[in-house]
Amino acid sequence: MGYDVDTIFQIAGIGIVVAMIHTVLKQMGKEDWAHWVTLIGFIVVLYMVATIVDDLFTKIRSVFLFIGS
């Protein structure tokens, strides 16, 4: 569970790139594609966060149940 600041920068980078693509597509008149890009970016970030939270709960469970991992 060796997460550090890199994960935060990855999530922020994905957010910035998705926001730029969304803005460009919206300016081009392709609002439906812009919304799809935003949705896909949200799903990717949600998967990253869910993985981190799962690791956290596994670590908490191993501490309180005294399971060596």
From TrEMBL:
Tagged with keyword Membrane: yes
UniProt entry tagged with the keyword Transmembrane: yes
Cited Pfam families: SpoIIIAC
Domain of life of the organism encoding this protein: Bacteria
InterPro entries: Spore_III_AC, Spore_III_AC/AD
Membrane-spanning residues: 7-27, 33-53
Entry keyword set: Membrane, Transmembrane, Transmembrane helix
UniProt-recorded name of the protein: Stage III sporulation protein AC
Lineage, uppermost ranks: Bacteria, Bacillati, Bacillota, Bacilli, Bacillales
